[in-house]
Amino acid sequence: MSFARPEGFTGTGRIGAQTAPPTKRSDVKRTMVRYKVKPEQAAHNEELVRLVYEELRRTAPEDLRYATFVLEDGVSFVHVASIETGDGRNPLADVAAFRAFQEGIGERCDEPPAAVGLREVGSYGFWGGGTGA
Known about the structure:
By secondary structure, the protein is an alpha+beta fold. The chain has helices at about 40-60, 95-100, 105-110; strands at about 30-35, 65-70, 75-85, 110-120.
């Protein structure tokens, strides 16, 4: 189900806090990937993810916003990426630790990665721009 969004509407966050309007850039691609690892693979998967972030801190790609979360069950992971390159190229492809993370992902998983595109309705400080970053 989708709801029509009135022209120019930015909405408000909880308790009336103003949210940032969604980006109008057509070259921004936002994706969420969710998967579930085998319980005995959870710690290894987290370590591989941490290595990705260590490399990202060293290389600091400008056109990438990226976050990884583990759900309360300890085995479900969610990755959220905002790719902001003009040509749509994914900067993660240049990260050796990310390529290493992807190797063997199928064997680590009980539920394989499923990617879905995201369309932003609004955000507050989530992407590193504006107040609350």
